[in-house]
């Protein structure tokens, strides 16, 4: 499957009009092509009308590359009181004055039109918790009905192949027939993505996928609600065993298997939860989507686009991303370490700062978060680029093996990764010591360990 | 570093000057000028790659407080890294060090004693001896540095105020002795509180030492705005005209470089 698909591995970051800790120039420098905006937050403040009046979000924030907005529905359900979903739309209590309000699929499109992002999302029927039963089916069919309402509101006639490709600096074109989609060239074109629903039920997901495919949308999104609904239960419920990561990759695999090969597949995850949830999850060593390992696995399964807040959020907790896993800069061992965060990294931070200096900044000074965010995002951009290049150059399996060997030098690749790679058709036997069952895997209830992460012994 | 006090403003004590900081900037910084406050050597809200967007060379003047580095990194580590400029990646910038700043290193005269000066920091009250201070100065290697001082608020007794001047002078000599370069880049600290006589005494004594310039402190600690001009003039009248004068806590004619009191708060 992987060998026949040539896709961009695209990583982009969440924001509310700006990226926390980085300027636009810095984002351009590290190679960021696309950033995501929360429609809900933007509509609250500064407001869609204002953004429209000032010429759209690109102009408002002076970002010349691509932008993506979500439908706004998810935050309403997760953040607001008395949110409810009816056939009409999402009813909720206005956070401003408490009045009952309604977000319809049409309105979501209108708001996103005003914001003017390049990629916009159809409002889907968000199922927040891991519910089973008829609600899942209802959500799936309703999502399809809402897609139709979105489409008619949107007036979608032309469908553009939305394969992203690098800008002129990189000069890599995937496909001669691909339209170069960047705001400055096509200010009047937005691309509507549909979201796959259906819970874990393969039959329902199949129906949804076929429904979306029939409507010939520019792109598809693997059901974020289901993925993040797992997230919710983790954050609140605490420690969960390895099978949940197992379910996650299977969902992604099923989606990518059934979604058309010539359209981008976007795995949305971890975008929308506030820091408090994240911290809770970190304390319970939750394994969410967004770690570099997850992205490599999803890429192997055929996904193309990812977003998450993990790199910047973990930066604010003083953690840097490195090829071997993570580096906790507030660790006392960093206090006199004169090496850069990552010797293989050529970002501004690694070129200019030592771990010792950063140790003094992180969690104490805002500059520490900024510098770490810069490095972490650089790392993710580099990972995306390496994934892409290795696919284009036909050496993706080797890249995956190299990645896993660096992250798991002892060969203790988690079982879910092995299973996923088997389905993806990538041979990683050289990276693994003989498999133990997941019961024997290291326990995840200490703060020092996370999936795919090497502990402090690395730094020696 | 070379400072040239140029035109004096007729009828006033104000003077224009030029500060040549060397390095890649051939053009001097025109004085009066402001120093940009830093936290651990970096401006609070701009990372080093954006500093270049600010006007040069004027934005190259940075204030650093060695007290920010009390906890970490260790002075030995700072030495091996190669000093402050290398550590924060700002090789072309001109760092002027003094202990006090307006955010994270506030002088606490109650805690100050004959051994050292006390500061309120995020990690609590810290007593800093001249030896520890000079160790940090030596490892950081700022372009200019102020000696240690006992800054007291305006309402202390005359006796306490006099003690603060005696201590400040003693610490100036101690710092120069401890400096491996013999005080080549030292800015003599001038205090004296709200007493014209003590201000004059301190200024005269500091001027008698071989210093590169003067750090005029002890302001912004409870004296009234009306008092300040007279106190400042008592100081500047006793200082040689050709040497650099910095002031912290206020802005009045007769000084060349000002440490802004609230710049980081306003920027936030």
UniProtKB/TrEMBL annotation, chain A:
Domain of life from the UniProt record: Eukaryota
Positions of the tRNA-guanine(15) transglycosylase-like domain: 16-407
Signal peptide coordinates: 1-21
Sorted UniProt keywords: Signal, Zinc
Pfam families from the UniProt entry: TGT
InterPro entries, alphabetized: TGT-like_sf, tRNA_ribo_trans-like
SUPFAM superfamilies given in the database record: tRNA-guanine transglycosylase (SSF51713)
Biological process (GO), any one: tRNA modification
One Gene Ontology cellular component: cytosol
MF-aspect GO terms: tRNA-guanosine(34) queuine transglycosylase activity
Protein name: tRNA-guanine(15) transglycosylase-like domain-containing protein
Organism: Zingiber officinale (Ginger)
TrEMBL record, chain B:
InterPro entries noted in UniProt: Queuine_tRNA-ribosyltrfase, TGT-like_sf, tRNA_ribo_trans-like
Pfam families assigned to the protein according to its UniProt record, in alphabetical order: TGT
All residue ranges annotated as the tRNA-guanine(15) transglycosylase-like domain in the record: 13-253
Gene3D superfamilies referenced in this protein's UniProt entry, alphabetically: Queuine tRNA-ribosyltransferase-like
Record-level GO BP terms: tRNA modification
PANTHER family to which the protein is assigned, alphabetical: QUEUINE TRNA-RIBOSYLTRANSFERASE ACCESSORY SUBUNIT 2
Protein name, UniProt field: tRNA-guanine(15) transglycosylase-like domain-containing protein
């Amino acid at each position: 499957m992987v060998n026949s698909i040539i896709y961009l591995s695209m990583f982009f970051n969440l924001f509310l009009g700006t990226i926390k800790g980085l300027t636009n120039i810095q984002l351009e420098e590290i190679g960021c092509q696309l950033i995501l905006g929360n429609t809900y937050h933007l509509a609250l403040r500064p407001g869609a009308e204002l953004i429209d009046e000032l010429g759209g979000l690109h102009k408002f924030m002076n970002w010349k590359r691509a932008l993506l907005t979500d439908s706004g529905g998810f935050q309403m359900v997760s953040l607001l009181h008395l949110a409810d979903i009816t056939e009409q739309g999402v009813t909720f209590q206005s956070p401003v004055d408490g009045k009952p309000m309604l977000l319809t699929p049409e309105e979501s499109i209108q708001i996103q039109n005003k914001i003017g992002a390049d990629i916009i999302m159809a409002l889907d029927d968000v199922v927040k918790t891991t519910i089973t039963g008829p609600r899942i089916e209802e959500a799936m069919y309703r999502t399809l009905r809402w897609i139709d309402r979105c489409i008619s509101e949107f007036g979608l006639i032309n469908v553009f192949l939305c394969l992203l490709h690098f800008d002129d600096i990189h000069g890599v074109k995937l496909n001669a027939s691909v339209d170069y989609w960047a705001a400055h060239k096509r200010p009047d074109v937005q691309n509507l993505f549909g979201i796959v629903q259906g819970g874990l039920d393969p039959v329902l997901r199949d129906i949804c996928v076929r429904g979306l495919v029939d409507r010939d949308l520019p792109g598809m999104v693997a059901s974020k609600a289901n993925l993040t609904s797992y997230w919710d239960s983790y954050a609140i419920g605490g420690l969960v065993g390895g099978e949940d990561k197992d379910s996650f990759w299977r969902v992604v695999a099923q989606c990518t298997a059934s979604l058309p090969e010539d359209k981008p597949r976007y795995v949305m995850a971890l975008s929308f939860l506030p820091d408090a949830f994240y911290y809770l999850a970190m304390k319970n060593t939750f394994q969410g989507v967004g770690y570099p390992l997850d992205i490599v696995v999803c890429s192997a399964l055929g996904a193309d686009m990812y977003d998450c807040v993990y790199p910047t959020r973990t930066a604010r907790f003083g953690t840097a991303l490195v090829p071997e896993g993570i580096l906790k800069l507030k660790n006392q061992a960093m206090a006199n370490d004169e090496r850069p965060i990552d010797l293989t990294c050529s970002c501004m931070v690694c070129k200019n700062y030592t771990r010792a200096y950063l140790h003094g900044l992180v969690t104490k000074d805002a500059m520490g978060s900024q510098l770490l965010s810069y490095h972490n995002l650089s790392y993710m951009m580099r990972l995306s680029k390496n994934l892409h290049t290795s696919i284009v150059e036909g050496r993706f399996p080797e890249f995956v093996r190299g990645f896993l060997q660096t992250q798991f030098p002892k060969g203790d690749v988690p079982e879910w990764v092995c299973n996923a790679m088997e389905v993806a058709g990538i041979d990683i036997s050289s990276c693994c010591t003989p498999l133990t069952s997941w019961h024997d895997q290291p326990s995840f209830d200490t703060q020092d360990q996370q999936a795919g992460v090497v502990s402090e012994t690395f730094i020696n | 570093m070379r400072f040239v006090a140029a035109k004096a403003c007729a009828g006033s004590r104000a003077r224009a000057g030029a500060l040549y900081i060397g390095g890649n900037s051939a053009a001097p910084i025109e004085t009066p000028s402001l120093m940009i406050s830093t936290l651990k050597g970096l401006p609070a809200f701009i990372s080093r790659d954006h500093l270049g967007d600010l006007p040069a060379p004027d934005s190259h003047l940075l204030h650093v407080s060695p007290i920010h580095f009390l906890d970490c990194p260790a002075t030995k580590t700072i030495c091996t890294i190669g000093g402050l400029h290398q550590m924060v990646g700002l090789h072309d910038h001109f760092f002027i060090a003094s202990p006090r700043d307006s955010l994270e290193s506030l002088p606490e005269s109650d805690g100050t004693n004959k051994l050292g000066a006390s500061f309120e920091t995020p990690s609590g009250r810290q007593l800093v001896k001249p030896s520890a201070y000079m160790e940090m100065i030596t490892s950081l290697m700022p372009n200019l540095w102020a000696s240690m001082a006992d800054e007291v608020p305006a309402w202390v007794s005359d006796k306490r105020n006099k003690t603060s001047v005696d201590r400040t002078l003693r610490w100036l000599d101690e710092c120069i002795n401890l400096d491996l370069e013999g005080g080549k880049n030292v800015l003599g600290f001038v205090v004296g509180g709200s007493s014209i006589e003590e201000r004059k005494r301190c200024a005269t004594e500091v001027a008698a030492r071989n210093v590169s310039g003067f750090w005029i402190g002890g302001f912004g600690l409870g004296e009234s705005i009306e008092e300040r001009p007279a106190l400042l003039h008592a100081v500047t009248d006793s200082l040689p005209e050709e040497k650099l004068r910095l002031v912290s806590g206020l802005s009045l004619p007769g000084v060349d470089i000002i440490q802004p009191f609230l710049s980081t708060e306003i920027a936030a």
